[in-house]
Amino acid sequence: AALAGQHAVLIGPPGTAKSLLARAFAGAIGGTRLFETLLTRFSTPEDLLGPLSLSALQADRYKRVLTGRIADCEVAFLDEVFKSNAGTLNAMLGILNERIVHDDGQAKKIPLVFAIGASNELPKGEEGLDALWDRFAMRIQVGYGKSRDTRRGLLLRTNGAHAGPVMTMAEWVAAMGEAAKTPLSDAVAAAFLTVIDKLATKGIVVSDRRLVRLGALLRAAAYLNGDAAVESDHFLGLAEALWDKPEQRPDVASILAESAAPEYSASLRKHDAVLPLVLDMLGKGTAADEVRAMTELDRAITEIKTIAKTAPEGSRTRERIKPLLVKLADVYGDASKRSAERHKRNPSADIDF
Question: What pLDDT is attached to residue 178?
Answer without folding.
Answer: 97
